[in-house]
Structure formats: C-alpha cells, structure tokens
Automatic annotation (TrEMBL):
Organism: Amycolatopsis taiwanensis
GO molecular function, one term: DNA binding
Record keywords, A-Z: DNA-binding, Transcription, Transcription regulation
Residues annotated as domain HTH gntR-type: 10-77
The protein's name: GntR family transcriptional regulator
SUPFAM superfamilies, A to Z: GntR ligand-binding domain-like, Winged helix' DNA-binding domain
Family matches, as PANTHER family: GLUCONATE OPERON TRANSCRIPTIONAL REPRESSOR (PTHR43537:SF24), TRANSCRIPTIONAL REGULATOR, GNTR FAMILY (PTHR43537)
Stored Pfam families: FCD, GntR
InterPro entries listed in its UniProt record: GntR_C, TF_FadR/GntR_C, Tscrpt_reg_HTH_GntR, WH-like_DNA-bd_sf, WH_DNA-bd_sf
Superkingdom as given in the UniProt entry: Bacteria
Length: 223
C-alpha cells in the first residue's frame, strides 16, 4: 500500500528515491521484501533507470540491500544494530540539544513548550501513535534549532534505518509514560538556555532507549 506522503512525492515529480525512501520508512515495504524494478517503476510512475539509481542510493543509505543475481530488498535491521544506532544517536542528539540551548529564541521556546504540552495530552489520552509522531517532531525541531546540519543529516539517515524498532518500542505498554518526563526535561533545559543540562537530559533519554532495546532483545532470546 502506498502512503499518502509517498504517493504525493511520486506524483509531484520529486525524485523517485524520495518516494521509495518514504515507503520504506512508513512500512509500506516489509523488512527483507524484494524490491522489483519493474513493479517499482509502475508503482511510482518512474523509468527503470531512475528506479535502479534510486535503489543504489538507498543501498548507500543502509535502507536497501542489493544481493548479487537476486536484485534488491529492504534491509532488515536487527535489535543489536538498532542499539548501535541509538548509541551513535546519543552522541549526535546530545550535540544538537547543546547547540539548541545556546541558540534558541523566545519563539522557539514557545514552539518546544507547545510540543511538550501536546505530548502530555497524548500520554493522558493514551494516544500512543500521536505521541510517537510528536516524539519525532520534537527531535527534528531540536535539530533545526541547533543548526548543526551535518549532525542533522546523519541523524536523519540513522532514524530511517531504525524507525521500525523505534515505533515498536513506542508501542510497548507504559513506554510513553517513561519517556515523557525525559522529553520534558530536554525541553526545559533547552528553553532555559542550559547547554550542559540539555546534553545530560538527552543522553539520559537515549540511554533509556538503549536499555529498552536491550531488554527487548533479551526477551526475544528467552522466547
């Protein structure tokens, strides 16, 4: 099934790589699913050559795996790799939070506070999907405020690779109630122009994510 976002990207003449990337991130293609050039060409109204080039680029990003004599497929990310990605995210997200605390304006403080209030409402109403979307929005907004473009580009690629694990983690019972105060602590530190506290709060949050992923891996092994 083609998502609204990926359909819009394909229909407006945006590069086919963006449309296929969106479809993978949004779960339209399952891990290890074969990506047949002819099918993608028809689905995204693109030439076979542009689809082939897109798959090569997505392979470089770590979203697609090209198998000799067997074409391409969606790369499956293990929990162990998701933990490694989160460890890298911890370093880069902390840098972005520190930069955001140094640069944030009064209007941007209001923006972050508004996201925080929306996250509270989502947890209070058990809107797990809405909370997950706000989570992504918050981290993206912090990266934008921090203005560290190189870190932001790397983080976007890492997020794309681990998005399925992040979503499953967000769906775990009780997880939003754990992460909400962590996110609010990040918002408060950045809003108060406290770079060190912002960095510490972000590290604490990602450490919690890593711990939850490790617990998930151990549970899977026992099962």
């Amino acid at each position: 099934m083609l998502t609204e976002d990926s359909a819009e990207q394909a229909g407006t003449g945006a590069p086919v790589v963006a449309a296929i990337r969106a479809a993978i991130i949004h779960g339209d293609f399952a891990p290890n699913q074969r990506l047949v050039e002819a099918d993608l060409s028809a689905q995204f109204s693109a030439s076979r050559a542009s689809v082939r080039a897109a798959l090569i680029e997505l392979a470089n990003e770590g979203l697609v795996e090209r198998v000799q004599n067997r074409g391409a497929r969606v790369r499956s990310i293990s929990i162990e790799e998701a933990v490694e990605i989160s460890e890298v995210r911890m370093v880069l997200e902390s840098l972005c939070a520190r930069k955001a605390a140094e640069r944030i304006t009064a209007q941007q403080v209001r923006d972050l506070k508004a996201i925080g209030r929306a996250m509270r409402r989502a947890v209070g109403s058990s809107d797990v999907v809405g909370y997950s979307e706000l989570n992504e929005q918050l981290h993206r907004r912090i990266r934008e405020i921090g203005g560290q473009r190189t870190a932001a580009q790397v983080l976007e690629r890492l997020r794309a690779q681990s998005v399925r694990h992040q979503f499953r983690l967000a769906m775990r019972p009780g997880r939003p109630a754990v992460s909400l105060p962590q996110h609010l602590a990040i918002i408060d530190a950045i809003s108060a122009h406290e770079p060190e506290l912002a960095e510490q709060a972000t590290r604490a949050h990602l450490a919690s994510v890593i711990e939850a992923l490790v617990e998930s891996a151990e549970t899977k092994q026992r099962g």
